[in-house]
Amino acid sequence: MTFGLTVLGTATPYPRPGNPCSGYLLRTDRTTVWVDAGPGTLAALQHHHRPDRLDAVWISHTHADHTADLLPYYYALLFADQHPRGPVPLFGPPGLADRLETFLAGATPNPASTAFHVHELHDGHRAEVGDLTLTSHAVHHGLPAFGLRATHDDAVFAYSGDTGPCPALRALADGADLFLCEADGEGPHHCAPEDAATAARGADRLLLTHVGHTLTHAEAAERATAPVARPGDTVTIR
């Protein structure tokens, strides 16, 4: 049975031609989860999967470059040619539903709940989605933010979300078959490529993403001694 990651976009803090912001698909033969919904990723997703047949959406934090496509997704699910079986499970940090409803003001009372069944994350939050287990770990990003550890059988995928170096990041990556880590740049709330490499010492493989505008992808890859994710890539986790 397969367990793979498809890269929808990696750009920060705004989409570039041919590269949406942060967004990924985690897929097994039975289950598909959209991880982060940055602007442009809903369109990219449709090359790989029907939006109304996602098993869940998982959001690391509320910054727009990770969430903005939840808004057109809401309209796709309720007012277009998509036919979801019911509200899509949406896992995200505290306050995510309120932000959606602020944007959607005037649609209907409690509009987000018509499209999404929202589950608020906390450190150690665990959810069973199809044949995936999703465990969330609080990381350091200056606001509530989470990394993801997803398991399928005995294979492990870890994703940093956006975070600075912290003990939780190293624990997240430890023992992972594939660790997807941001490399936005040096600073208290983001990782430099070297920080990603340090956190990944306990993982089998490191894949960089979310490379900041001060770095070229080639520079980031050289500094971390690891490849950079590219839109459209599909990687087998194990």
What does this structure look like?
The protein has 238 residues and is an alpha/beta fold. It is built from eight helices and 13 strands. It has a single domain, classed as Metallo-beta-lactamase, Chain A, CATH 3.60.15. 22% of the residues lie in helices and 28% in strands. A seven-stranded mixed β-sheet has the order 6-5-4-3-2-1-13. A six-stranded mixed β-sheet has the order 7-8-9-10-11-12. A hairpin with a 3-residue loop joins β2 and β3. α7 runs parallel beside α8. It is globular and about 50 Å long. The model has no long low-confidence stretch (mean pLDDT 95).
Question: Which features characterize this protein?
Answer:
Metallo-beta-lactamase, Chain A; Metallo-B-lactamas; 6-stranded mixed β-sheet; MBL fold metallo-hydrolase; alpha/beta; single chain; 238 residues; RibonucZ/Hydroxyglut_hydro; 22% helix; 7-stranded mixed β-sheet; 8 helices
Could you give a quick summary of the protein structure above?
The protein has about 240 residues and is of the alpha/beta class. It is built from eight helices and 13 strands.
